[in-house]
Amino acid sequence: MDLAPEELQFLSIPDILRESTSIPKRSPKTFYLITLTLIFPLSFAILAHSLFTHPLLAQLQSPYADPAQANHEWTVLLVIQFCYLIFLFAFSLLSTAAVVFTVASLYTSKPVSFSSTLSAIPKVFKRLFITFLWVTLLMIGYNFVFVLFLVLLVVAIDTKNSFLLIFAIIVLLLLFLVVHVYIVALWHLASVVSVLEPVYGFAAMKKSCELLKGRAKYAAILVFGYLTICGVIGGVFSAVVVHGGDSYGVFARIVVGGFMMGVLVIVNLVGLLVQSVFYYVCKSYHHQGIDKSALHDHLGGYLGEYVPLKSSIQMENLDV
Questions:
Q1: Which domain holds residue 149?
Q2: Of 180, 205, 210, nearest to 193 (Cα)?
Q3: Contact in structure between 93 and 301 (CB atoms under 8 Å)
Q4: Between 20 and 30 A from 187 (CA), which of 67, 107, 222, 274?
Q5: Does the pLDDT at position 308 exceed 50?
Q6: How far is CA 106 from the centre of its chain?
Q7: What's the total number of domains in the chain?
Q8: What's the half-sphere exposure (Cβ side, CA atoms, 13 Å) at 191?
């Protein structure tokens, strides 16, 4: 980002996307390694998860399933789900920590390398984890309300109450399109705040809420666009690769699956870059100065007494 801090507030959504996609060019090797080691496994898990669970669900739904075998399959399914959630949670936070730290380092003209990013991740991860726990509490409350209106929708259908049906549908749409999207935007921005400012947890969420004022519309469009693209990718992957065995050949499924995987990796990388850039846009919009020297020192605090292993040829090759 070569723009002056006061100019960032005038960036439109296309400008934000353009700035975000140009960042990896400043340190291609670092972002290549981050993508390969963190973002690719995350994207692979998101899509491949259904490949493992679909056969088990199909067997469990079969009327001819053996009860003893069904108990075993339920156990396997629950273990897969548990491992998937842990893996998804861990790599999501790791990817966020790596990208936000690297973008901030580039912004402050701090030397960037994959090794320095890895060295900073442990301390960054702790802060992101605490913030994530607070967001989880918020999501639990949101899901509770959402389920209540889903039950109300079912009751309206059973009782054939038109007014209640329309009311429940409108509220559910508002909950998803407004509340859910806002919470996701709040979470993403709070994650960046947790890395770049001396606050985390509830304080980071509060700070994120303040930064979103005046730029909530931009955040909603970006988040909704991201969720929509991910939904389309997941839908195509499910229709062709997971459920398309009778309609598509093995080669076609492999090609489509590989292509969808590549697209999701790019979307996730761009999404992380966008949330980093959007933080600076919000700071600029609220005329909150960004002291690059202070931010430089703050980022250096994550590295502690870290000294690059200059004797290692591999580490030197990773430095940009």
A1: 5-318
A2: 205
A3: no
A4: 107
A5: no
A6: 21
A7: 1
A8: 30
